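**Entry details**
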Amino acid sequence: MDWSHYSQTLFDEYTNTNDNLIVYACPGAGKTTNIKHLWTLDDEPTVYLVFEKHNQVEADAKLPKKQGSAVLTLNGLGHRAVLSAVGRVILDNNKVYKIIKDYIKIPEQNYKVKQERIYALAKATQMAKQVVPGLFSKDTYEDMLSVYDLDDYEGMYYDVERVLSISDDMLSTIDFADQLRLPVVHGLKMPQYANVLGDEAQDFSTIQGLLVQMIHADRYAFVGDMHQSIYGFRGAMSDSMQVLQSMFR
């Protein structure tokens, strides 16, 4: 590979320092190729974090094997922490609907309206799971409704709070959002790595940043392109790279 001056500078920093690194890349700069190369520069236990399962499978097949290392999605990282804490986990993406059915009384006789309210409550709860634990409030709820154009009914905020609380206490059954949220809520022990490599840093949400921070690695390196963010619907921060830079000084 004929590396550019910018790539070589990144590799030199990674090799010769133990500093945390964040790379603001532009389209076509080969950011994924560059961060994959960092994997090869030492023998320390390293985790390479990606967003999509197909990226994880592809990278895991191509990167050289390193003892104590792994290629994981962010959800896979959180899932490992929950699994380690609980021992056996059922992944059920209908978890919130089942909690609503078992614990929440929707005061509406009209079947169609009742189903619409159940759907609205479930959707709002799933979005609330993206909020940093302890920071969900009436104000953040109102902001969430506005940003994501969610339906509301009288008293739904309190129903969201209750469903969220029940869900947070239920570790043996989890859904996709819980894989990120529950390790942060309960301070679960994370897998340990010396190096953390994070791709697509522009798509990190706050809760994903907190999850990765819990690894307490010796060094973090992130790459991203601020013009390519595609996960706003999952709670990705509009200024995620700046936030990560402040979190991992």
Q: What stands out?
A: The CA atoms of residues 198 and 204 lie 9 Å apart. The chain has a mean pLDDT of 93. Strands lie at 21-24, 46-50, 70-73, 90-91, 173-174, 195-198, 219-224. The chain is about 50% helix and 10% strand.
